[in-house]
Amino acid sequence: MSDTRNTQPHQTPASTISKKFCRMCGTQLAVDADQCPSCGHVCAPIGGNKPTPENISPKSFGVAVSLCGVFGIMGIHHFYIGNIVHGLIDLLLFVAAMVCFFNNTESWALFGLMLLLIDVGHSVWVMYQLFTGKTYDSQGRLIPYPGQL
Fold it and tell me: Which residues of 96-119 are buried (b: 16+ CB within 10 A; e: fewer)?
């Protein structure tokens, strides 16, 4: 007996989607909006359209992955892709963890270790985002992995 079920993944047409949200600030947008009115972030089109050359970042995927892998807990990769505020937060988290960790007090060392583990977890998440092609530079342009487009 043959299986007659459809094995194709279900995709919702863009015309039936009633809500769209900004990736940066979470503001609800009109479905056809190209830019967020609150923060100015350039929004990706609904429906899985391929990005246009104007929406592709000139930043290198390889450099971003290398910086994230080697200096991830310091946030250097965020500076490279232009997300300066995110980079500063990552760097300050790393510095605070190091200060606490080397304070010679057990309670501060444990707090520093906790901050460092949070920073490592964040770096792993950013690496995952890079490998799945979901990372954008400061201009809202996609940093694609090789073969993504």
Answer: ebeebbeeeeeeeeebbeebbeeb
